[in-house]
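cron nightly-structures :: item 1 of 1
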Amino acid sequence: AVHRYMIENKINHKWTPIERQAKIIHEKKTTSLSVTRRQFPVIVAEAMTIHKSQGCTFDSVAIGMRKETWSITGDEYEFPDFQLGVETFSSLNRKRQHNGVAIYIKKHIPVIKRMAYPDYEKGIHLAVLYLQNRVRLIVLYSKPGNSCDDIVEALNNTIGVDYQEYISILAGDFNINMSTEDGKEFCEILREVYWLHLKTNPAHWTTRGGTTIDAVFASQDLKCCGVYESTFSYHIPLYGRL
């Protein structure tokens, strides 16, 4: 809600919104007397330059990525209870731009097959995981300027229309605005050819620019699916649950 308010009121995305919060304090458990405090959740803090912080140890830090940030081969990330399932990064490409995608998965989930399809010429990357529970996870990135036909051709050359016995979930940054006519045409193609239905709301923005270029498709109904309101980065995180 805060993210949408900032876009609608054209508030600089570099600002960090602080919402006033209310806390109810009860005098005793045995009485109904209570006091409501409304205040902004701020505390005294300090800042330093990156040069000053070198060699220091901190209990916790916060990182805000205001621009798209790309990984390259050799970058290591650690997420509790997760492991790298598959990635499309290449050691030959050292540029941190339009470089690939990766899927991280819970360590206890068995993986049958991992497949990566990088296309650095067109800037379309697909990563696919086939799981033991007959679920196929597909993550796609397409750089700006690619058409619906370019993405469909990449899907035909990689995942095809096989594996109908799998529940397929396709998510990613398609760089096609799903609320436009081109986006509607793209959704129709995925529905008719791959039986993949759009699960996210095309009217709900997925970027701070007010577009819906990120989306989740699935071959069957999901228990829940949507957009997680956040100002962490330019793209708003998406979620889905079988």
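cron nightly-structures :: done
The chain is about 15% helix and 30% strand.
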